Amino acid sequence: MQHILIIGASGVLGHATALHFLHKGCRVTALVRDPVRAEDLKRAGAKIVVCDLSDHKTDPAMFDDVEVVLTAAHAMMGKGKNDSSAIDDKANKRLIDQAKNAGVKQFIFTSVHDSSPDHPIDFFRTKYNVEEYLKRSGLNYTILRLSAFMEWHAYNLLGKSIVEKGKTTLFGKGENKTNFIAVADIVTALNQIAGNAYYFNKTIELSGPDNFTKNEVAEQFGKHLGISPRVKHVPETALQLMSAVLKPFHPGLSRVMKLSIYTEHSNQARNAGETIEQFGMQPTTLDKFIDGRIAAGKAK
Known about the structure:
Strand order of the largest sheet: 3-2-1-4-5-6-10
Shape: globular
Number of strands: 12
Structural class: alpha/beta
Strand content: 15-25%
Number of helices: 11
């Protein structure tokens, strides 16, 4: 029975992955900061480890008998002791070292498309640096470079407000194509990747099936709801000002403002061919995702 340790098991990807492997009959250790958010995982049979990654006291014992580690925690919007440098950089490197010492067979690191040493956004540079650290560690690794999650970028940050209030606010003009991927599709890929030597020491790009502008996403939510959503746009000049003002107080929010400007002027479109080819999945379309979200809301 495979034993998988999931770092950040209360987040959208970590939680879905933990439930999947529990239902599959695997042993799952779930590392979370807030145990209340992991009650359903505990009921499903997961071993819950409560840990704040910023404390620099990750217990090496949590790696006992673990074969596969998946990191699904990040601090893009973090601040204070939970800022990105503490979590995305130092904590991940510490976890890699401990996994190596414990004899873990595979370390799966969730990264982002376009991670690079000279990316204008520090979060992307950090992801690249950790990728390189993992490659040098001697561990069998699998690096997943992921598109924007539908759950966050298409729903929580955009469509949810349309569903609840008939309106939303977009940072920038919302005219640049972006690729969105459903977490369920990432879990489908992880089902094949975890513990599979074929995927050891590889960097894999995972993308959704389509590319949409944020304005088009808003239109899609409106179409499913039978309304014309009211869409407000925050101009780039305002984003630049807010990013500068917020940086000393909330570097996470400042980073989001800066990233919003960057994504308006860079290629965020992806080709889903490799994802479909490698894993044989029927990817979740944005249309299907929105339909499911709205149906779930009506069922409450």
